[in-house]
Design goal:
Strand content: 15-25%
Structural class: alpha/beta
Distance between the termini: 55 Å
Number of helices: 11
Largest sheet: 7 strands, parallel
Strand order of the largest sheet: 11-15-10-5-8-9-16
Number of strands: 21
Shape: globular
Length: 406
């Protein structure tokens, strides 16, 4: 870690010093010079500040990593119904744990959830820690944070994985801050070294690079992962793990939030759960042309999704967007129509089982990840594809489609 120190006694011309920073990070008020949050650590002030500014490297104290053992997964649920992202994280946790010979834990908090905890053992979890209290019936950030903190203090897991859901995105940073440790959000790749350092990889700078992030001097290491990034493990019939019921003081569960009413959201099939997805891209010239995409989707029983340009044009529902700023999908089949394949989009679908790409640009990046590439105009290929599929009858499998595009 590093910081910039200001020697106030060396200041002679504060107005000129303020002008040094191109980001307006230097301020002068009440005869006191300071640096605000706009600082980019570019060191221009140090080079041109006549000794007023000094760069200081702070000593980083190491941590005894041997005291932190285990990989923990936060169980995301609604009234005991476990979100499938939890099972995906258990699968990844088992993979990481096998490399460093650590146990896999789950922390499950809520009300009347003890029976549901048994199901987690069927996915290879070594131990499920259950916090069951009426105060945890509805998600409230203060008691949930207190419980999570209590769990980590008692178990000291070296890695904590949290689903990138609405609850997970709210809870994980609060808990990480309690332990003054790092949190990497929306990881797409996770690995672990022999010294238990977590390799956290995620798209950065708008998806233009893949950032490789470490937390070598702090524990635990937090990471959130979106739904459909990893695969859930196979369910086993004879689990060997155990359930531990935990207690926490009532005072820790106090909250300033009162839940007055809970309204159930109407359940709908989302593109994240679809087995077949058809994606409309920038190659669609006008909104009416989406009809041919919907015709193809109807034949295949598919969901229609889109890329960001069509969302911004107001042609499709924002909930149907795939990519870093949209949803992540992992269907059995995905067909991209006029999609260039920018890294922001690919990051949201490259784990699909079968990818068929249609694009008239032979150098389109989407062809690098596609299993089947159809080079040509979507306005010619899609109508022909629809006609061909209609001729096959009403029952069309993915294998039939593969034969057609081949």
């Amino acid at each position: 870690m590093a910081k910039i120190i200001i020697h106030q006694d060396k200041i002679t011309s504060p107005e000129e010093l303020v002008k040094l920073c191109p980001f307006s990070a230097i301020e002068y008020d009440n005869q006191y010079l300071s640096i605000n949050a706009a600082c980019k650590m570019c060191k221009i002030c140090i080079k041109k500040g006549s000794g007023v500014f000094e760069w200081v490297e702070e000593e980083v104290l190491g941590i005894d990593k041997s005291k932190w053992k285990g990989i923990a997964v936060y169980v995301d649920h609604v009234e005991g119904e476990i979100h499938p992202v939890t099972l995906e994280l258990i699968g990844k946790a088992k993979e990481l744990a096998a490399k460093i010979n650590h146990p896999v834990y789950c922390v499950f908090m809520g009300h009347e959830i003890k029976e549901r905890a048994n199901e987690l053992l069927h996915y290879g979890v070594d131990e499920v820690f259950v916090y069951d209290d009426e105060a945890l019936k509805d998600f409230r950030i203060e008691p949930y944070t207190a419980v999570f903190e209590d769990f980590i203090q008692n178990l000291q897991p070296t890695i904590v994985l949290v689903g990138g859901t609405t609850v997970g995105r709210s809870l994980a940073p609060r808990v990480a801050a309690r332990f003054r440790t790092g949190l990497t959000a929306d990881c797409t790749i996770l690995g672990v070294q022999e010294n238990t350092d977590l390799d956290q990889i995620r798209p950065a700078f708008g998806g233009n690079i893949m950032a490789h992030i470490y937390t070598p001097n702090h524990r635990p290491q937090f990471a959130t992962v979106r739904y459909k990034i990893f695969s859930a493990p196979e369910r086993i019939e004879s689990p060997t793990g155990k359930i531990t019921v935990c207690e926490i003081g009532k005072e820790a569960l106090a909250s300033k939030i009162t839940v007055l009413d809970v309204k159930q959201k109407e359940k709908e099939m989302s593109i994240e759960d679809a087995e077949v997805v058809i994606v409309a891209g920038r190659g669609i010239k006008k909104q009416e042309d989406l009809d041919m995409i919907h015709k193809l989707a109807d034949i295949l029983g598919a969901h229609v999704a889109s890329t960001r340009p069509l969302i911004e044009a107001g042609w499709t529902d924002p909930r149907k967007q795939i990519g870093l700023s949209g949803r992540t999908v992992k269907p059995r089949l995905i067909i991209t129509c006029g999609v260039s394949g920018a890294i922001q989009f690919v990051a949201g679908m490259n784990n699909s089982e079968c990818i068929i790409a249609i694009n008239q640009d032979e150098n389109a990046p989407i062809f690098k990840v596609a299993h089947y590439a159809l080079k040509g105009d979507i306005y010619e290929i899609i109508p022909k594809l629809v006609q061909k599929l209609n001729s096959l009858g009403t029952s069309i499998s993915i294998e039939h489609l593969k034969q057609v595009v081949s």
